[in-house]
Amino acid sequence: MARLVMKFGGTSVADIDRIRNVARHVKREVDAGHEVAVIVSAMAGKTNELVAWAREAAPLHDAREYDAVVASGEQVTAGLLAIILEGMGVNARSWQGWQLPILTSDAHGAARIEDVNGEELVRRFRERKEVAVIAGFQGVHKTTGRITTLGRGGSDTSAVAIAAAIHADRCDIYTDVDGVYTTDPRVEPRARRLDKIAFEEMLEMASLGAKVMQVRSIELGMVHNVRIFVRSSFDRPEDIDPMSNHPPGTLICDESEIMEQQVVTGIAFSKDEAQISIRHVPDKPGVAAAIFGPLAEANINVDMIVQNISADGSTTDLTFTVPSVDYERANVVLKKSKEQIGYASLDGSTDVAKVSVIGIGMRSHAGVAAQAFKALAEQKINIRAITTSEIKFSLLIDAVRTDSAVRTLHTLYGLDK
Ligand code: ASP
Ligand code: MG
Asked: How far apart are the CA of 212 and the centre of ligand 2, in A?
């Protein structure tokens, strides 16, 4: 017998038929003798609709009331799933975040989970064989008692937090893809589903644009060592053997669980980048602070930074990237600080993309990035900027060359099917 968390996203609960399908997945695990907590998202599109309603009511509104509105989507699916399970003869009860409770910070709209009480759930597993159906995405602030939400995609984080609280053996994320791929299969059809990926690698993949799970949920999984299994909710429930150790999907786990570590695990990319170059900046202490301080104050995330050592000892050029949505704002901020920074001119481009190569094997292998430079040069793909860290390197290139760069690197590192 195992204790499982099963999380179902919006497309998996998009209508009553699909919720029935979810219930059959749950029943399969219960019949196999497992203890089950289910976490559900709102029906597909519901949260968008609720957010739009809040905005229509008033463009600027109290974040506490935003949460009161948008948390309702998950309340509906939790109740519906409990009803359907009961109808199938499975003991089930729905839970709102405040009922457990799931305690959070008071950052309404983007709250962080601080504590989850899973005791009652565990007692009911034991005494009544009762399935807990929990509304994802929502919690309650620990002192005001007001409903909070965890940010878009937050039910992944609910699921992992609950798995940690009840010491689940595994946290199954049922979604509309059947696992985590070496890269986006829409760009490279030869992308493969990974059997396993380490938390740190998944964190990089998710931060860099692989939209399988909320980034925060992976951080939590890593901290509490929750084994997360990404799998498809569209497989027919009766085709799956609940005792099998190898259902199709990807396990996100500690690197010690991964026997055959490849050097490179995946290629991520993001076209939502913009490049800014500042020309002829004085090469002296305090200049970086004068540039990046105001950007930080404006809440603009700076990612890649490249600075040259000046040839003449007086001025140099500095290039960095920001999210493309912040490009205009960043320009405004920098023009305002022109005097203080003392640069000659500013230029930039939003037609750039960041391609990243990820793998914990890079820690122990030299020359991994050098191979990429050569392969991209052969394809005449120009590299504008490079950053590296222990388990990844990222290259800034022209956006139009993204697909070709991704495919080149995918083949280069032996990731093709
Ligand atoms: N329903 C919420 C959203 O759409 C939370 C989630 O689905 O994870 O963002
Ligand atoms: Mg999601």
From this structure: 7
Q: What is the CA 367 to chain-centroid distance, rounded?
A: 29
207: CA distance to ligand 2 center in Å? 14
| pLDDT score for 245 | 65
Ligand 1 pocket residue status of 47, Cβ below 6 Å: yes
Ligand index nearest the alpha carbon of residue 41 = 1
Ligand 1 site, residue 97, Cβ cutoff 6 A:
no
**Whose alpha carbon is nearest atom 9 of ligand 1?**
152
Q: What is the DSSP letter of 130?
A: P
Cβ atoms of residues 36 and 30 within 8 Å: yes
Ligand 1 pocket check for 137: Cβ under 6 Å: yes
Q: CB burial class (10 A; 0-12, 13-18, 19+) of residue 53?
A: exposed
Beta 92-95 vs 266-282: how paired, if at all?
unpaired
pLDDT tens digits for range 262-308: 899 999 999 999 999 999 999 888 989 999 999 999 999 999 999 88
Cα 328–Cα 340–Cα 318 angle in degrees, nearest 5: 60
> DSSP letter at 69?
H
Q: Which residue has the tokens 């490009």?
A: 327
pLDDT digits (tens, 9 = 90+) for 373-390: 999 999 999 999 999 999
Q: Which helix (H) or strand (E) holds 174?
A: strand 170-175
**Residue 57 and residue 45: Cα distance in Å, rounded?**
19
DSSP 60: S
Ligand 1 binding pocket includes 136 (Cβ within 6 Å): yes
Tokens describing residue 217: 């949920």
